[in-house]
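Per reviewer request, we include the raw input and output of the structure prediction for the construct analysed in the revised manuscript.
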Amino acid sequence: MTAPSPPGSLSLEIQADPQEFRRASSWLRQSGAALAVPEAQIDRLELCLNEVLANLVEHGGAATAQHPIQLQLEAVQPTDGCGAQLVVSDRGEPFDSGQASVKPIPGSLDEASPGGLGLRLVKAFSDAMAYRCLEDRNELRIAMHWTPGS
């Protein structure tokens, strides 16, 4: 069961199943509209959300599959404008994305290998990321900022 959302935030609980990604994206778009998050920021958050969920399913371990993933979208007030923060909370293997090394971009197709660029993508599309392990749950916060009227 999902805990009640604080004011200015909306929550969803999903299973660690790729079939749930579409539902999570739909929830994010509806929640973003309800919190007056500009569509361009929601597009960026959706890309990050889908990458994070795919990584959880692939690398999170058995505990990820056994426990729901909790999503929360929050309206935040950074010092220089408006913002939104997507919080992804799971019970998978701990993974501090802020401390993880980013795979280098290959110089040619011969050097390229599948996978490993998702973290680079999330860091490039978000304005800030923060990770913590809290009460045996991973919590990843992905923030987007914008100025009013932009």
